[in-house]
Each structure stands twice: as C-alpha cells, then as structure tokens.
Write a structure and sequence with these properties.
The chain is globular. The strands form 10 sheets. Strands 8, 9, 11, 12, 13, 14, 15 and 16 form an 8-stranded mixed sheet that branches. The chain is of the alpha/beta class. The protein is 24% helix and 28% strand. This is Bifunctional 2',3'-cyclic-nucleotide 2'-phosphodiesterase/3'-nucleotidase. Keywords: Hydrolase, Metal-binding, Multifunctional enzyme, Nucleotide-binding, Signal.
C-alpha cells in the first residue's frame, strides 16, 4: 500500500504541474486580413457616373487595413483575386494605353504600399490573356499562388503535370506571443481558382494551361504543406459557397473545402457576397453565421469592389516544436453604410493609394470621355427586369448589326439572326445607384462601358428554335413564382438570380408567365419537366418552328457554358468573332451617329392572374415609370418600390 502511494503521489504532482504549465503557456494571436474582388476599383471613383464614390475603392479599404493592424500585434494580409479586370481603369491599362514589360501595373503601385503577404489568382485575371497577366504580376512586391492551374503539356498523363503558378507558400513569420516574446510561426498559404476558367477564357487558355478540381488539389497539397512544417494553413479559394452535394469541378467549392483536413482558415471570394452575415447561409448545416465558421473553420468573404475588409482572428498554442490553432473566428468591416438614399462613408480614403495611381486614373478619365455617338432620348436600365429595355435594346441592335456583316459570304448567310443580351447594372447588391443612366445627347466611351461592363468576346452560336426557347426558360429564373388572386404584394424579382443571367433575346417575340414554376434550378438543371414559363414565341409574326436553325449572337462567357444554360457549352459556337462585344457597341454607335434607343417591346409578362406584384428600382425611376407602374415608397436600403399591374 505504501509502495502504491509512493508511485501515485509524484505522478499526481507531475500531472498537476503539467496542467498548470499548459494553462500558463504562452499563446499567439494571429489576425489574417483579406481583400477580394477589387476588380480594379483602386480609387474611390465611379468611372461610369464620372464622379467620386463613397462605396468603392481599395483606397478606402486601406484605411480599414491600417486600423485593423493597429489593434493587434500580429497580422498578415492576403488578396483573394479578381483584381486586374472589372472597370474602365482595368480596360485602359490593358487595352487603352497598354501595359509594357518592365512597367508596374497600377494595381501593384497601390497594393505594394500595403505590404501584402500573398496574392491569389482569380478567374478574371485571365481575361486579358496569360502574357498580360504575367507582365502584371511582375510588378507585385509579394508572391502569388495557385494550386489548381497546370501547364498543358498535351500528353494526357495527369501524373506528370507541372503547376503553372507556385501552388502554395510557407512563410516563416515573426510574431509576439502573449508573454511578449518573439516566436516564429510557419504560415502556409494555398490558393485556388474555379476550373471553369477553361470555358470562360477558352480562347486565352486553350492549349496553354489546364485547370483541375479544387478539392482534389487541396487534398493533394495540404499534406505536403504539413510535412514541410506549416503550423497554420490558410486556404485562399477564389470560390463562393454553394450548399449541396459536391460535384467534380465545382465552381463554388468553399463549403466543401472547409471539410478538408488540415485547413485552419479560409479567405474566400468570387460570388461578391459577405461572410459572416449573408442571410442566405442562416440555418445551414456546419455554417455559423455569427462567429463566421464553416464546419468549425473560421472563414470570411469581404464583398466586392473594396466594399469590405475580411478578418480572421486565430489563437495558436505551442505543440512540440511547432504551433497549432486552438480557436478562431471571423468578421467583416465595411467602408460605407446605407442610410435611406444616401451612402454614408465609414472611413476616408487613404490618399497615398489614390496618389499612387493618379496618372492612370487621369488617363482613364480622358479615355472614357471620348464621344462615340448621340442619343435622342435618355437611356437607363431602371426597368430592365420588368419590361423590354433601351439599354439592352442598344446592345442587341449592335450585335445583330455586326453579325449581319460578319456572316456575309459564309455558309451561315441567310440563317435568321437573333441576339441575346442581359442587364448588367440593375441594382441588386450594387445598391440603388447601380443602374445604367445615360442622359440624351452625346454618348461617350464611358457610357458604352456602362451599357456593357465586361470585356467579353463576341460569339455566335447556332441553335434550333427549341433550344432558343430553352435558353429563355433558363433566363426566366430571374422571377419568383407568383401566386394568382392574392392581394398582398408579392416580390416579382428573385434577388438570388444574377441579373447578368437574365438574357433578353431579340429578333423573336415572347411572353413570360411567372404564375408557373421555374423549369430550371439555380444550377441549370431541369426540376419541373412539365413547366413552361415561355409562351407565344413567334418569329416574324408566326409561331417559331422548333426545328428551324437560328444564329444567336452572344458572348464568350455564355457561349462556353457560363451560367449553365442548356445547349451552351462551346459545342454550338460557329463564329469566334475577333471583336469584343463592347467594341461592337461602340462601333455601332459610331456608324449610326445618332440613335433612337427606344425598345421594340419584343417580350412581356403574361397576366399576373389577379395578383399584386412589386419590384424595386432606383429612386430616379419615378419620373420614367409607365402607366402600369405605381411608386409606393422607399425600402430600408433606399430602393424605390413599385407595384406592377
């Protein structure tokens, strides 16, 4: 018995001492800051409206970055991607003045002032081609990573594929622990991009690179990072959060990436939302929208265009010779907030950032103010989602005009030509000011960019009448199903449906019956096989022949599968035009000199069957409302609310 006590007593003391030592062991707090989807909004300026803006700009996020750094001892800063394209400044650098080898891209003139630790490649980085991308990245004073883009070696053997970019990075990072002592933590970063770049930018990438699955790439490299001594692994996927069963090649893979063992934090982007805080993610298994975790992994997505800064705060404890994460949470901080019709700034711009790109900013202003035509009436997109619209009409007119010329003396001459275009600026997450609004009179290049904001390449697809109708069925997902004979107002617009997927097809006439359910779900799959919202489709006054062939003018994004539309996967493309859609619109305006932008009213809604429906638009829309629209007031975000008869 005494012998047992002699053994027990020292062991108990030892355990108590160890527990005390563990409780008192120094910890490290590490803050990770994220920017994403800047889309060349480096300064706080709206190039389309040609005025200063309180709601966009890396220069305003820079102030948040400095504030967040000052609050803690240890921090790192990452950018998620979609940086180099997205507004006229990006187009000016790529296509206007043209970036030369050895020059520093203005994005990096700005970002190099902020001491980024690492950057990730977004899908829009490929829009101007690989040569432009590599010229641009050469100006960054920080490394770039991407783990799922490989050199296309053409041998069909995946085992010997070589990464096109550095797939991951492990940075020894000096930090101060809770005792004030300096420690070194090995921080690992790994980045991803949607594999869909191979369809969205096929012309730029085919034969040069290949893109692989995000989750498979993570499972390949993260064990390597662990074996090479990474204490913390930060995943930076340019990928949103789709909730559902995972499919190979998933575009929005973040939800499933959080399940991959070994990831300590996720800094994501791509879908232009905010997390934590996105109400669509409430009550989702594994998602904590308050603490900002996904299956226990802290994650953040800070909006778009510099609207927010993302923060992840980790607590690390020593484990052997290394460190491990024991706790973490995430949050976001905004640069502005809405108060009724007003955007109130929460921070001022960092003038060092604005000054760094002043030369390119002024060049962009001159570039965008060039006159290309004249309009006899105002052009706006206030009602683009509820009636045929002049801003879309101009694009479709231009595309048909172009296609009529390009098919001459080809085997496609004589086929009927249709055109598809969507409203790119129709409120939504962009706010009540995010609409095309061009007053009558001179049309400048900035207005053309306002009508067509993406640098897409023009494509022509050949489809049957039946396939054209299915295209419209997919587009009709823009609308909620309306229940007949209800007096209480029902929201007409499905706000989760991207407006750039609401294609209006000109050259035919049709009705949309929103009292019927959607035929397609958000992923482009048929969910109601017997549902048909598109009715009374005619071509030249006669019912459309379902087996008749049509040429439809569109863009490379749609033609190659963007938006997951039926019969649009690249295989139906018959003309790869050498021009961009935006250039086509500009050349059309130059050729016409003066235009009447009136819509031809080729589509309309079927009867709402006794229901009252409403929609939101810009407060400016009140003076343009049709007799069948009644303004009822402003909502809490500053949008004007209209009832539609």
């Amino acid at each position: 018995m005494k012998k047992w006590n002699k053994i027990f007593l020292p062991t108990s003391l030892t355990l108590a001492c160890l527990a005390s030592a563990t409780a008192n062991a120094a910890t490290v707090d590490l803050r990770i800051l994220e920017t994403t989807d800047i889309h060349m909004h480096l300064v706080d300026y709206d190039y389309y409206a040609d005025k200063q803006s309180n709601s966009v700009g890396l220069s305003r996020v820079a102030t948040l970055i400095k504030q967040a750094r000052a609050e803690v001892q240890n921090s790192v800063l990452v950018d998620n991607g979609d940086l180099l394209q997205g507004n006229p400044l990006g187009d000016y650098v790529a296509k206007g003045r043209v970036l030369r080898f050895g020059e520093t891209h203005p994005a990096y003139k700005a970002m190099n002032l902020l001491d980024y630790n690492v950057g990730n490649i977004g899908n829009h980085e490929f829009n101007y081609g690989l040569d432009f991308l590599m010229k641009s990245l050469a100006g960054a004073n920080f490394p770039y990573i991407n783990a799922n883009v490989y050199v296309d070696d053409g041998d069909a053997n995946p085992d010997n594929d070589q990464p096109y970019f550095q797939p991951y990075l492990i940075q020894p990072t000096a930090v101060l622990d809770s005792d004030g002592k300096e420690q070194v933590i090995n921080v690992g970063y790994i980045g991803f991009v949607p594999p869909q770049i191979m369809t969205w930018d096929k012309d730029n990438l085919s034969g040069k690179v290949i893109a692989k699955d995000i989750i498979a790439s993570a499972k390949k490299y993260i064990p390597q990072m662990k074996s090479e001594g990474a204490d913390v692994i930060i995943a930076i996927p340019h990928s949103g959060m789709y909730i559902g069963n995972y499919e190979q090649g998933e575009e929005n893979a973040t939800y499933h990436l959080a399940k991959v063992d070994g990831i300590d934090a996720i800094l994501f982007g791509h879908s232009h939302k905010v997390f934590p805080g996105d109400s669509s993610l409430d009550n989702i298994e594994g998602v904590d929208n308050a603490t900002g975790t996904v299956f226990g992994v802290p994650a953040t997505m800070p909006g778009f265009w510099g609207s927010h800064l993302g923060l992840v705060d980790l607590v690390l404890e020593q484990e052997g010779q290394g460190w491990k994460v024991v706790k973490g949470s995430s949050s976001i901080r905004a640069i502005a907030k809405r108060e009724g019709r007003t955007t109130v700034p929460l921070v001022e711009a960092d003038e060092h950032i604005n000054h760094a790109v002043e030369h390119e900013h002024q060049g962009t202003l001159e570039y965008m103010r060039r006159k290309v035509g004249e309009s006899t009436a105002d052009i706006n997109s206030f009602f683009a989602l509820v009636q045929d619209d002049p801003s879309i009409q101009i694009v479709n007119n231009a595309q048909i005009w172009y296609a009529q010329n390009i098919v001459r003396a080809t085997s496609y001459e004589g086929l009927p030509i249709l055109s598809a275009a969507a409203p790119f600026k129709a409120g939504g997450r962009g706010g009540p000011e995010y609409f095309t609004d061009v007053p009558k009179g001179d049309i400048a290049l900035k207005n053309v960019s306002d009508l067509y904001i993406y640098p897409n390449d023009l494509k022509v697809v050949k489809l049957t009448g039946a396939q054209v109708v299915e295209w419209l069925e997919r587009s009709a997902g823009q609308f909620n199903q309306i229940q007949p004979n209800q007096e209480a107002p029902q929201a007409l617009i499905n706000t989760s449906f991207p407006t750039y997927n609401f294609d209006v097809i000109d050259g035919i006439q049709y009705r949309i019956n929103v009292t019927k359910p959607n035929r397609y779900d958000s992923e482009g799959k048929i969910v109601n096989e017997n549902a048909h919202r598109i009715e009374a489709v005619t071509y030249q006054g006669q019912p459309i022949e379902l087996n008749q062939e049509f040429l439809v003018v569109t863009n490379n994004y749609r033609a190659s599968g963007g938006g997951k539309f039926p019969a649009l996967d690249g295989s139906t493309t018959v003309i790869d035009a050498p021009d961009k859609n935006r250039d086509v619109v500009a050349n059309y305006l130059l050729s016409q000199t003066v235009i009447n932008p009136a819509a031809d009213n080729n589509w309309e809604f079927a009867s709402f069957a006794g229901a009252t429906v409403n929609f939101t638009s810009s407060p400016k829309a009140k003076s343009y409302a049709s007799p069948n629209m009644t303004f009822t007031g402003l909502d809490d975000q500053g949008f004007a609310v209209f009832e539609l008869q």
